[in-house]
Amino acid sequence: xxxxxxTETFLPKIDGIVTRLKxxxxxxxxxxxxxxxxxxxxxxxxxxxxxxxxxxxxxxxxYPELKLAIPRPSLKLVLEKFKPDLIHVVNPAVLGLxxxxxAKTLNIPLVASYHTHxxxxxxxxxxxxxxxxLWELLKLGHNxxxxxxxxxxxxxxxxxxHGIERVDLWQRGVDTDMFQPHLVCSKMRSRLxxxxxxxxxxxxxxxxxxxKQIDEIRPVLEAIPHARLAIVGDGPHREAMETHFAxxxxxxxxxxxxxxxxxxxxxxxxxxxxxxxxTLGLVLLEAMAAGCPVVAARSGGIPDIVTDGVNGYLFDPVxxxxxxxxxxxxxxxxxxxxxxxxxxxxxAEKWGWNAATQQLVTYYESVLxxxxxxxxx
Length: 377
Description:
The chain is of the alpha/beta class. It has 14 helices and 16 strands.
């Protein structure tokens, strides 16, 4: 099978979407499929045997790490040369609209997938009044596809409620070989805690941006003053967050990759995640695979992953003290925390990337066979 994959973000940027796409491309190529990635130009020409065609773009004003890559007529020649059996557009917003257009123009079957809950993001950038318009635009784009995939049951229901058709679930996946509990490391714990390895160590990993609501972790530190917080990642909100957390035991680590990131998860006492905009929360699965219990908002796709009191703790995001109470509960008893660690790893082991990619291939084959989809919700 030959798949042209249009995405608004790819390497060298690092986030949950790119992580999912990396593993998907790798597994598709390994199974003998041919993938062409069309993305904003990041200097990458090839990945795991798949050709990467970069389209020049301009940085997004509110988020310079993201580039707006405008579709151009040359894409038609690229597609005609590659001869895809199917086009898959990931989060179609700008470049992905070109994928939709050429799928229709060249009569190529189209699959779309929804990974970023953009309508909720608007609230965090002072653009909430545009939410209704954005849903209409999303509906217009996604309803061109023969199949729309989401990464959590909550997002399947949300898209169906907003008029998007032919929606189904693309199961979660995590690299259980990379992220493992045995990677706990005293040097990493000392690094993350700035030389205070005996203090309770809380960890956040992800974009440092407004929609992640990292600022809501500060009350947890104020309630547990001997705790340390390590923030791994970067983004447009970092300077504001450094100001917000001034005077607390917070360390802005920057990016970590590979085994260093896996060791950071394994060496922490709790992964704390207040975001309410997650369609899946891949980083939660990575934490759990490393045996790091989770404290997270009961929102979006997170309850698909975290079972309250079993492999982590969920809190009501509208309760101002919810995150504080949940974190205190997790840190209170070492034996219970050890059990949460074991259960977190066991849950993550169910969701390897191979199974997720096999499911995607089945979806692709069904679309190519002309199967008519009804929404799963």
